[in-house]
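Aim 2, interim progress: modelling of the magnesium ion-bound target.
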Amino acid sequence: MSGFHGELVHPLRAVVDELELPLVLPFSTSFGTEGARRVLLLTLEDADGVRGFSECVAGRDPYYSYESVPIVLEVLERYLLPALAALGNEVTPHRFLQAADRIRGHPMAKAWVEMALWDLSARRSKLPLQKLLAHGRPVRERVEVGVSVGLVSSPRELVRQLEGYTGQGYRRLKLKVEPGRDRDFVRAARESFPEAPLWIDANQAYTAKDLDALAKLCRDSALSVVEQPFGEDELILHASLARELEGTPALVCLDESVTSMGRLELALQEGAVGCLNVKPGRVGGLSRSLELHDRAEGARVPVWCGGMLETGIGRAHNLHLASLPGFRLPADLSASDRYWKEDLVEPPFRLGPASTLPVPTGPGIGVEPEEERLSKVRVAQRVFSLDQRL
Ligand code: OSB
Ligand code: MG
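Predicted structure of the complex, ligand included:
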């Protein structure tokens, strides 16, 4: 990216920590249930002992996307770390992405390295990551967030969980839905929380025959966002739904569909995107996120920052990004205790006034994994030399 003003970096060592971290509540979506996350952390260390951190968002299995933990580990080890090592002592996130371009796809694996490079560079520059990303634009100190609630057994149970979250101060509520577990759940939520901004996310679970019922659900329950109801490739269907919802407050949001700038262009042209969920860990990193953000902003499509049940490391990256002015809808980034009994970072992220989380203020992402926590949940560690002279 031409706008990159961070220091050039020269990582000499990469450490990959594989962790097994139980969630406080199993998280169910239309593609499956996860009781614990297989977390992949990357630490890049330079000759001065300065370290940059990042977390991979790939799932244990290829259900949300084709990427998964064993595959990203393979791509990292066989292709990405050698590409990084070959760049030598003048590395930037952008130069890394250029070098990684000949490896097709695998945006989660690439983002994993790219985001550690941003952190390392920001730390070397002694700047909070948000300042490096914003490049002179004003940034926020706190980010408005909401909570994303998985599929549950009954509307009653859903309302019980939502009462817990609203009691803690969360305002915007996002519900996972799927065919057969939608109308009664959404209605119950709307009846209990008549004023709450209510969003739904189907993770691609619907098809053409559901279009009219979905539009009716959005209208009847005054939903503000309907996220990725149809398959990744179904831009035309998303556009049809958007047309049916014209004149209502409901926006069709794309998540999985936007895999590249070309895809976003197509979605804009088709009228398939009312708002955009940008997850840096999914779209290939922070540089790509900024590009998508700028393009969507130019088309007056609001952008917001999604989450993938990250630990405090990935969450910190996301918060820095979400503090940029174009991120205008509340993020899917909740406090540490919504996910973990003990987060990897200290202090954990706590929900503040007006449903916000603070952006850490130190250099880089502003938080580090606590070694004593890692040692309790680590299942494997791999260390790689990036020094070409060895
Ligand atoms: O589609 O946004 C999604 C979690 C895992 C996989 C996909 C999604 C999600 C979430 C969680 O909605 C949001 C969060 O991290 O709080
Ligand atoms: Mg989603």
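The longest helix spans residues 69-86. The longest strand covers residues 11-29.
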